[in-house]
């Protein structure tokens, strides 16, 4: 069982950033309105994710560390309809199997639970008087999988991966207040009042937020709304393009391309904007189960969607230039 979890961990928990991604997704799924992420030494020494969500019922906490013990028992097709981010029930057991993990979790006005696991084995199991929500502390990540540890090149690269995830989470969930602390320094904090532009200001700065323009367009299949930076604000790569489909941050090459093309067909060939695009569509048009991390998705009529986005951005940029 431990071995199976470590093997699964190879897929789900590639690096500290993937641990943070899974833990934050769980916090979002638990309907948290505040999520704090603290890391030390790029997450290799310590990761703490604190949320104010629903908590795990005391009697279910142990089971959450068994494989495929998801409480979100939906088919993958339903995934984008139901809007929970997790569904495989692999993350907690995988993370626990390659670290020392402490969890404190409580439902509202109930006695909570405290568990401490090492390499996936439960060492401590007590009840805990906690507030509503969940705190998960992951220490000594990959201590028992030296190969994985060796794979990690530099702490700086790891921190930038984590920062990217945190930024994307903040931009795709403007109604949640996120806080990100790296080695004791507050890197980012959003208000969580539902305003995307506010989230953009917290992530990229107030000056950038002022130089973003609203994009809105739709057709029969798709509804797109978001922000793109003015031509004077460009970036050298696509790290600053955030695509959100039905509330989920995704990777999609051709849609990224559409954003860049709409933007750069005006003046700045090959330049990348800062952009946040919210795309809503019928979940039936989606296939998410392409990769365990759930970020690569296929969309039917992807070309049509790309065209729609490209034209809307092109139009908006043209108005600005005139
Ligand atoms: P999945 O998210 O795919 O269901 P995970 O291994 O990530 O699987 O989590 C297992 C279960 O533990 C979840 O289904 C959920 O019930 C519970 N859980 C995990 N993290 C939290 C959290 N922060 N708040 C509430 N419940 C949680
Ligand atoms: Mg999960």
From TrEMBL:
One of its GO terms (biological process) is mismatch repair. Residues 200-318 form the DNA mismatch repair protein S5 domain. GO terms for cellular component: mismatch repair complex. GO terms for molecular function: ATP binding; ATP hydrolysis activity; ATP-dependent DNA damage sensor activity; mismatched DNA binding. Keywords: DNA damage, DNA repair. The keyword DNA damage applies. Belongs to the DNA mismatch repair MutL/HexB family. This protein is involved in the repair of mismatches in DNA. It is required for dam-dependent methyl-directed DNA mismatch repair. May act as a 'molecular matchmaker', a protein that promotes the formation of a stable complex between two or more DNA-binding proteins in an ATP-dependent manner without itself being part of a final effector complex. This is DNA mismatch repair protein MutL. It comes from Atopostipes suicloacalis DSM 15692. The chain holds residues 9 to 330 of 639 of the full protein.
